[in-house]
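Tutorial, part two.
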Amino acid sequence: MAHDMHTPSRPPLSASLMLRAYAAGVFPMSEGADDPEVFWVDPEWRGVMPLDGFHMSRSLARRIRGTTFRVTIDHDFAGVVAGCADREPTWINAEIASVYNELYAQGFAHSVEVWDGSDLVGGIYGVTLGTAFFGESMFSRRRDASKIAMAYLVVRLRAGGFTLFDTQFVTEHLISLGGVEISRSAYRVALANALTAKADFLALPDPTPVQELLHLRTQTS
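Running the prediction step on this input gives:
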Protein backbone atom coordinates (compact mmCIF):
# COMPACT_ATOMS: atom_id res chain seq x y z
CA MET A 1 0.00 0.00 0.00
CA ALA A 2 1.23 3.47 -0.83
CA HIS A 3 1.50 6.05 1.93
CA ASP A 4 -0.05 9.18 0.45
CA MET A 5 0.32 12.68 1.78
CA HIS A 6 -2.65 14.89 0.82
CA THR A 7 -2.62 18.60 1.51
CA PRO A 8 -5.88 20.55 1.39
CA SER A 9 -4.20 23.65 0.00
CA ARG A 10 -0.98 23.08 -1.84
CA PRO A 11 1.44 25.32 -3.71
CA PRO A 12 1.45 24.87 -7.50
CA LEU A 13 3.89 22.34 -8.82
CA SER A 14 7.21 23.72 -10.05
CA ALA A 15 10.46 22.24 -11.24
CA SER A 16 12.23 23.19 -8.01
CA LEU A 17 9.48 21.70 -5.84
CA MET A 18 9.55 18.50 -7.87
CA LEU A 19 13.31 18.16 -7.46
CA ARG A 20 13.06 18.68 -3.71
CA ALA A 21 10.36 16.02 -3.56
CA TYR A 22 12.45 13.49 -5.46
CA ALA A 23 15.41 14.19 -3.21
CA ALA A 24 13.12 13.46 -0.24
CA GLY A 25 11.92 10.19 -1.78
CA VAL A 26 8.40 11.17 -2.84
CA PHE A 27 6.78 11.67 -6.24
CA PRO A 28 3.54 13.25 -7.55
CA MET A 29 0.43 11.57 -8.94
CA SER A 30 -3.09 12.59 -9.87
CA GLU A 31 -6.24 10.51 -10.07
CA GLY A 32 -6.61 11.11 -13.81
CA ALA A 33 -5.89 13.35 -16.78
CA ASP A 34 -8.83 15.62 -16.00
CA ASP A 35 -8.31 15.71 -12.22
CA PRO A 36 -6.59 18.96 -11.19
CA GLU A 37 -5.54 17.60 -7.80
CA VAL A 38 -2.02 16.30 -7.18
CA PHE A 39 -0.88 14.20 -4.24
CA TRP A 40 2.54 12.99 -3.12
CA VAL A 41 3.33 9.30 -2.82
CA ASP A 42 5.90 7.60 -0.59
CA PRO A 43 5.44 3.83 -1.12
CA GLU A 44 6.17 1.42 1.70
CA TRP A 45 7.70 -0.89 -0.92
CA ARG A 46 9.59 0.76 -3.77
CA GLY A 47 10.12 -0.65 -7.23
CA VAL A 48 13.68 -0.53 -8.55
CA MET A 49 15.49 -1.98 -11.54
CA PRO A 50 18.92 -3.26 -10.45
CA LEU A 51 21.31 -2.00 -13.10
CA ASP A 52 23.35 -5.20 -12.88
CA GLY A 53 20.23 -7.39 -12.91
CA PHE A 54 18.37 -6.41 -16.06
CA HIS A 55 17.05 -9.56 -17.73
CA MET A 56 17.42 -9.53 -21.50
CA SER A 57 15.81 -12.70 -22.80
CA ARG A 58 17.03 -14.44 -25.94
CA SER A 59 13.84 -13.37 -27.70
CA LEU A 60 14.38 -9.72 -26.76
CA ALA A 61 18.00 -9.89 -27.91
CA ARG A 62 16.82 -11.34 -31.25
CA ARG A 63 14.20 -8.62 -31.50
CA ILE A 64 16.80 -5.91 -30.90
CA ARG A 65 19.15 -7.40 -33.51
CA GLY A 66 16.47 -7.65 -36.15
CA THR A 67 14.29 -4.66 -35.39
CA THR A 68 13.61 -1.91 -37.88
CA PHE A 69 12.76 0.41 -34.99
CA ARG A 70 14.93 3.47 -34.50
CA VAL A 71 15.81 4.49 -30.94
CA THR A 72 16.71 8.06 -29.98
CA ILE A 73 17.43 10.06 -26.84
CA ASP A 74 15.72 13.36 -25.98
CA HIS A 75 14.34 13.86 -29.50
CA ASP A 76 10.67 14.11 -28.47
CA PHE A 77 10.38 14.33 -24.70
CA ALA A 78 6.94 15.97 -24.83
CA GLY A 79 5.74 13.25 -27.20
CA VAL A 80 6.83 10.53 -24.78
CA VAL A 81 5.06 12.22 -21.85
CA ALA A 82 1.94 12.58 -23.99
CA GLY A 83 2.17 8.94 -25.05
CA CYS A 84 2.41 7.83 -21.42
CA ALA A 85 -0.60 9.98 -20.49
CA ASP A 86 -2.69 8.76 -23.42
CA ARG A 87 -4.34 5.83 -21.69
CA GLU A 88 -6.91 4.98 -19.04
CA PRO A 89 -6.27 5.12 -16.23
CA THR A 90 -3.44 7.65 -16.14
CA TRP A 91 -1.86 9.50 -13.21
CA ILE A 92 -0.45 12.29 -15.43
CA ASN A 93 -2.59 15.42 -15.51
CA ALA A 94 -1.80 18.64 -17.38
CA GLU A 95 0.05 20.26 -14.46
CA ILE A 96 2.29 17.23 -13.90
CA ALA A 97 3.04 16.95 -17.63
CA SER A 98 3.89 20.66 -17.80
CA VAL A 99 6.39 20.44 -14.94
CA TYR A 100 8.10 17.39 -16.45
CA ASN A 101 8.54 19.35 -19.66
CA GLU A 102 9.99 22.19 -17.60
CA LEU A 103 12.44 19.76 -15.97
CA TYR A 104 13.43 18.53 -19.42
CA ALA A 105 14.09 22.11 -20.55
CA GLN A 106 16.34 22.53 -17.50
CA GLY A 107 18.27 19.31 -18.22
CA PHE A 108 16.90 17.28 -15.31
CA ALA A 109 14.60 15.00 -17.32
CA HIS A 110 15.27 12.73 -20.27
CA SER A 111 13.46 10.42 -22.64
CA VAL A 112 14.13 7.36 -24.74
CA GLU A 113 12.04 7.24 -27.92
CA VAL A 114 11.27 4.26 -30.14
CA TRP A 115 10.28 5.06 -33.72
CA ASP A 116 8.71 3.03 -36.51
CA GLY A 117 9.51 5.22 -39.46
CA SER A 118 8.25 8.65 -38.45
CA ASP A 119 5.79 7.26 -35.89
CA LEU A 120 6.62 7.42 -32.18
CA VAL A 121 5.63 3.92 -31.04
CA GLY A 122 7.14 3.67 -27.57
CA GLY A 123 9.30 5.32 -24.99
CA ILE A 124 10.28 5.98 -21.39
CA TYR A 125 10.95 9.22 -19.55
CA GLY A 126 12.29 10.10 -16.14
CA VAL A 127 14.12 12.57 -13.93
CA THR A 128 17.79 12.54 -12.95
CA LEU A 129 19.38 13.70 -9.70
CA GLY A 130 22.90 12.74 -8.72
CA THR A 131 23.34 9.11 -9.78
CA ALA A 132 19.61 8.35 -9.50
CA PHE A 133 17.22 8.00 -12.41
CA PHE A 134 13.57 8.24 -11.40
CA GLY A 135 11.67 6.39 -14.09
CA GLU A 136 8.25 7.94 -14.42
CA SER A 137 6.34 6.07 -17.08
CA MET A 138 6.65 4.20 -20.34
CA PHE A 139 4.32 3.35 -23.20
CA SER A 140 4.21 1.01 -26.17
CA ARG A 141 2.20 1.12 -29.37
CA ARG A 142 4.05 -1.80 -30.99
CA ARG A 143 5.04 -5.18 -29.62
CA ASP A 144 8.20 -5.01 -27.49
CA ALA A 145 8.68 -1.26 -28.03
CA SER A 146 8.75 -0.50 -24.30
CA LYS A 147 11.08 -3.45 -23.62
CA ILE A 148 13.47 -2.17 -26.26
CA ALA A 149 13.30 1.32 -24.76
CA MET A 150 14.03 -0.14 -21.31
CA ALA A 151 17.08 -2.04 -22.59
CA TYR A 152 18.49 1.08 -24.21
CA LEU A 153 17.84 3.04 -21.01
CA VAL A 154 19.58 0.50 -18.76
CA VAL A 155 22.66 0.49 -21.00
CA ARG A 156 22.74 4.28 -20.90
CA LEU A 157 22.39 4.43 -17.11
CA ARG A 158 25.16 1.88 -16.62
CA ALA A 159 27.50 3.72 -18.97
CA GLY A 160 26.73 7.07 -17.33
CA GLY A 161 27.60 5.97 -13.79
CA PHE A 162 24.07 5.77 -12.37
CA THR A 163 23.58 3.66 -9.25
CA LEU A 164 19.79 3.80 -8.67
CA PHE A 165 17.02 3.20 -11.21
CA ASP A 166 13.77 3.92 -9.39
CA THR A 167 10.65 2.49 -11.07
CA GLN A 168 8.34 3.60 -8.22
CA PHE A 169 6.29 0.39 -8.30
CA VAL A 170 6.74 -3.01 -9.92
CA THR A 171 4.47 -4.59 -12.51
CA GLU A 172 4.57 -8.03 -14.08
CA HIS A 173 6.19 -6.38 -17.08
CA LEU A 174 8.97 -4.85 -14.97
CA ILE A 175 9.46 -8.04 -12.92
CA SER A 176 9.96 -10.00 -16.16
CA LEU A 177 12.82 -7.60 -16.98
CA GLY A 178 14.45 -7.92 -13.55
CA GLY A 179 12.58 -5.35 -11.48
CA VAL A 180 12.33 -5.91 -7.73
CA GLU A 181 10.81 -4.31 -4.64
CA ILE A 182 12.84 -2.95 -1.75
CA SER A 183 11.67 -1.50 1.54
CA ARG A 184 11.21 2.22 2.03
CA SER A 185 14.18 2.29 4.43
CA ALA A 186 16.45 0.47 1.96
CA TYR A 187 15.34 2.84 -0.78
CA ARG A 188 16.15 5.88 1.36
CA VAL A 189 19.68 4.57 1.94
CA ALA A 190 20.19 3.98 -1.80
CA LEU A 191 18.76 7.42 -2.59
CA ALA A 192 20.96 9.19 -0.04
CA ASN A 193 24.03 7.52 -1.53
CA ALA A 194 22.94 8.41 -5.07
CA LEU A 195 22.58 12.08 -4.21
CA THR A 196 26.23 12.37 -3.14
CA ALA A 197 27.70 11.89 -6.63
CA LYS A 198 27.04 12.80 -10.26
CA ALA A 199 26.22 10.74 -13.33
CA ASP A 200 26.04 11.56 -17.04
CA PHE A 201 22.90 10.50 -18.93
CA LEU A 202 24.50 11.56 -22.20
CA ALA A 203 27.73 9.56 -21.80
CA LEU A 204 26.82 7.22 -24.67
CA PRO A 205 26.40 8.46 -28.24
CA ASP A 206 22.96 8.87 -29.77
CA PRO A 207 22.08 6.58 -31.45
CA THR A 208 23.47 3.95 -29.10
CA PRO A 209 25.26 1.12 -30.94
CA VAL A 210 23.28 -2.12 -30.83
CA GLN A 211 26.46 -3.90 -29.70
CA GLU A 212 26.21 -2.07 -26.38
CA LEU A 213 22.85 -3.72 -25.74
CA LEU A 214 23.97 -7.20 -26.72
CA HIS A 215 26.99 -6.76 -24.42
CA LEU A 216 24.50 -6.04 -21.67
CA ARG A 217 22.97 -9.48 -22.16
CA THR A 218 26.28 -11.24 -21.58
CA GLN A 219 26.92 -9.19 -18.43
CA THR A 220 23.54 -9.52 -16.71
CA SER A 221 21.94 -12.74 -17.92
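The domain at 2-220 is CATH 3.40.630.70 (Aminopeptidase). In part three we will examine how such features are distributed along the chain.
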